[in-house]
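Q: I have 98 residues here and want to know how they pack in 3D. Can you give me a structure?
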Amino acid sequence: MSAYFVMIREQTLDSAALADYGPRASLAAQGHPLKPLATYGTLDQLEGEPIEGAVILEFPDMAAARAWYDSPSYQAAVKFRHAGSKSKAFFLEGLWNA
């Protein structure tokens, strides 16, 4: 069953830290079976407090998603996102199609 990583950037706090995050996160993706579905595309926000953007990554399953997120290379990268922005991130399991 597919799993999705969803990250919502609410506010930029440090542009330089975010600039460091992007390349590090891309390197951390190498060797992991992830598929970017949406990355800071045009946003038509319907509800809630304004956000700056969002990312959705697809993984084959929750175990693969956790392996990527918990990997040393992504944990080294995510520190820059945490320093550079106010954001939320979560995993969402997809629907199983018979």
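Q: Anything worth noting?
A: The first strand starts at residue 3 and ends at 12. The CA atoms of residues 16 and 84 lie 7 Å apart.
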